[in-house]
Amino acid sequence: MRKTTAQKGNPELIQALTEIEKEKDIDKEILFEAIENSLLAACKNQYGKADNVRVILDRKTGEFHVYLDKEVVEEVEDEATQISITEARVRYPGKIVGDMIAQEATPKNFGRIAAQKAKQVVVQKIREEERKVLYKTKEKDIVTGMVQRYSNGNYNINLGKIDAVLTPQEQVEGEEFEPHERIKVYITEVKDSTRGPKILISRTHPELVKRLFESEVAEIQSGVVEIKNVSREAGSRSKIAVYSNNPDVDPIGACVGQNGVRVGSVVEELRGEKIDIVEWNEDPA
Q1: Of 176 and 44, which is predicted with more confidence?
Q2: I need a surface site. Which of 6, 43, 120, 121 has the fewest CB within 10 A?
Q3: CA distance 82 to 12
Q4: Cα(268)–Cα(271) distance, integer angstroms
Q5: How many CB atoms sit inside 10 A of residue 248's CB?
């Protein structure tokens, strides 16, 4: 990015963000807001963490401006948040006591500093958005992760490009894992947070059982056999109701597999949890 000042603008920044939007499929406004928030944090520290500081990045020119929102008062008690009516009448004709004014306070060479900061923020935001998109595609699915450590009842699980926390509420009672052990978890949700995407995972969710069978049974993958329902007491017993769209295919036999190899793989992943497989019927009775 070219060194610039707030007054000269920064067309190269706008062009770069436009290209990123096209290539990475990341909304340009997300990048604008990330840059503004980063600069705002830096400016607040400069002005004593004041809450009346605003940083504006012009979406067309790439100019950076810092404003202090001040109230017009008869007598100034706080110079950071107030401006006297006498000064306001000179600098902002027509203002009266009680009005709010936006006083520009853009530091010297702020454009150059802001451009450098913007580059850092954009690189970080691209990584965050790419991770979010990656794991959004895996939401409501199972992934294999590596156990990193156990702390305060939580397991820290590395999913490849991002870490997730397996909380006590989402752990099966009695299950214990060792560092570097690989386990399958179900991604219940991918949330946005100020520190990047937050991945919520579970070992107790009924869908974990369903996804495990889908990965083991070819007939489920092809759509011949369907899992109609799953009931689970995590760590104790699961029951799945299956149905075949082909009268020549036994849905229970397909899920059990030759010599029980398919259901055995699921049971092994669930650490010995008992699994009942029943044929689904439209009539509950």
Answers
A1: 176
A2: 120
A3: 36
A4: 5
A5: 6
